[in-house]
Write a structure and sequence with these properties.
Chains A, B: It holds the Pfam family Pyridox_ox_2. Chains A, B: This is Pyridoxamine 5'-phosphate oxidase family protein. Two copies of one chain form a homodimer. Chain A has a single domain (2-131), classed as Pnp Oxidase, Chain A, CATH 2.30.110. Chain A has two helices and seven strands; from the N terminus they run βαβββαβββ. Chain A has 134 residues and is mainly beta. Chain A has a six-stranded antiparallel β-barrel with strand order 2-3-4-7-6-5. The longest helix of chain A has 9 residues, at 14-22. In chain A, 10% of the residues lie in helices and 51% in strands.
Chain lengths: 134, 134
């Protein structure tokens, strides 16, 4: 079947993208820090068309992304089969909570320390692709 | 030992960052396509302080990144141990070759089709971090 041809890149529909987003706990946020793009991995939660992350209150991420367009990416790579998938979410980021008591909805973070600033990316574009392996 | 405390984030030195970059074949490039940041995974090669990738001659990536600052990220995540590492390369991208005959130095690409445009990111900032797991 041609669809499974090795090296072929197939677009995913939006439902499949959200299923894949819900299946992981670490993704990568990209934003502009004033001197170009930056990419950093962090824990996230995908709920109802939005991506939630937590960061430190005075982090560059917290200071820079407010009301700006950012990108959020999740992927899975199989080096043995030269295959994988990726999902890209684009949208505006905003601060939804300063969660001093850990009560707000949001991801559990692996990094210790104060991650009380809860950010949300409101997805206005969700695209994904799957690379067929051998 | 405090260094191995679970949830602790440790900065990597530049040599270690280049060793980790050399250990992988897929990373993620982030660039601005005119309406905000985009992140896409692709094959790469890390050589002598530079990152090489291949793309299609008329791709958005090829058209947009020329002589602009981009970011390139590689990471490894261990969901079981809630740990991992990531390396971030920042620098200006340029076209080094239009490799119609596949003779230029550069990564082997998993995606089939014409990937004759060889781009290089000249790293002016390389940072990395390791998150200690449980």
């Amino acid at each position: 079947m041609d669809t499974w041809q090795s090296g072929r890149l197939v677009e995913l529909d939006e439902d499949e993208c959200w299923e894949l987003l819900a299946s992981r706990v670490v993704g990568r946020v990209a934003y502009d820090d004033g001197s170009g793009p930056v990419v950093l991995p962090l824990n996230y939660q995908a709920v109802d068309g939005r991506i939630r992350v937590r960061t430190a209150p005075h982090s560059v991420l917290g200071l820079r992304v407010r009301d700006r367009r950012v990108a959020f990416e999740v992927d899975d790579v199989d080096e043995f089969r030269s295959s994988g998938w990726s999902v890209l979410v684009r949208g505006r980021a905003s601060i939804v909570d300063v969660d001093l008591h850990g009560r707000a909805e949001g991801p559990r973070t692996w990094v210790s320390g104060n991650r009380s600033l809860v950010l949300e990316i409101d997805a206005d574009e969700v695209t994904g692709r799957r690379l067929m392996g051998s």
